[in-house]
């Protein structure tokens, strides 16, 4: 879906939501097998200055069967319109709702974007808690420097990429491609990718805290999950 001219006239900096920039990549939605929404969870002008996003964007779109599009956090005026008008958060390129994608990847630059992630999932009508998402929902991934300590966001993210995302991204996509071809359950995918170095799947670990809330220990609960993420 596209934002109507009436909506764009009612928000500040409407160019944040129009897309169509030079060198943006628009693929045929119906002819690609894997759809990925890439997000730096902040305003368009902040997210587009992040160098990781265009690297991952180009890397994913270099795969013939992969479509990668961008999505950013809307400003409060657009958020209000989306909620009152019942508009789910769409991607920038094709305007498909985020809930129609296979994967949503968040690049976390710092901790203050954590709440933006939750707000964007809510705007997209995707359950915020990972435990409440099922096989019909996108796989939610997070990486970047803000994910080096993943535990504060562990309840909301299906899997974390710890370290440089471009080093494991295509291996992750290969696993997703095989899993989608098999038509297996989401839990099978999470177990499969947990064996990839640098991938942390919170649902496959037991985390314990001290009485004062400080971290105490973490241990894998599945054979595929490594005791050490590196």
UniProtKB/TrEMBL annotation:
Q: Which Gene3D superfamilies match?
A: Cobalamin-binding domain
Q: Where does the Radical SAM domain start and stop, copy by copy? A: 54-202
Looking up InterPro entries in the UniProt record yields:
Radical_SAM_N2
Q: Name one Pfam family in it.
A: Radical_SAM_N2
* Protein name, as recorded: Radical SAM domain-containing protein
Phylogenetic lineage: unclassified sequences, metagenomes, ecological metagenomes
């Amino acid at each position: 879906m596209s934002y109507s001219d009436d909506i764009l006239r009612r928000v500040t900096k409407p160019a944040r939501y129009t897309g169509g920039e030079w060198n943006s990549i628009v693929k045929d939605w119906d002819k690609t097998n894997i759809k990925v929404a890439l997000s730096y969870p902040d305003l368009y002008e902040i997210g587009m200055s992040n160098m990781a996003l265009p690297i991952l964007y180009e890397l994913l779109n270099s795969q013939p069967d992969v479509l990668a599009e961008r999505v950013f956090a809307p400003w409060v005026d657009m958020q209000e319109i989306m909620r009152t008008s019942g508009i789910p958060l769409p991607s920038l390129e094709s305007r498909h709702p985020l809930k129609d994608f296979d994967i949503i990847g968040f690049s976390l630059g710092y901790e203050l974007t954590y709440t933006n992630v939750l707000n964007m999932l809510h705007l997209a009508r995707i359950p915020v808690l990972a435990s409440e998402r099922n096989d019909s929902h996108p796989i939610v991934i997070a990486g970047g420097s803000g994910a080096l300590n993943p535990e504060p966001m562990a309840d909301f993210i299906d899997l974390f990429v710890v370290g440089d995302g471009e080093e494991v991204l295509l291996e992750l996509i290969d696993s997703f491609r095989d899993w989608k071809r098999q038509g297996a359950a989401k839990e099978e995918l999470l177990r499969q990718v947990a064996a990839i170095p640098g991938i942390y799947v919170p649902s496959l670990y037991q985390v314990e805290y001290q009485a004062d809330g400080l971290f105490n220990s973490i241990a894998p609960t599945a054979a595929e999950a490594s005791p050490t993420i590196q």
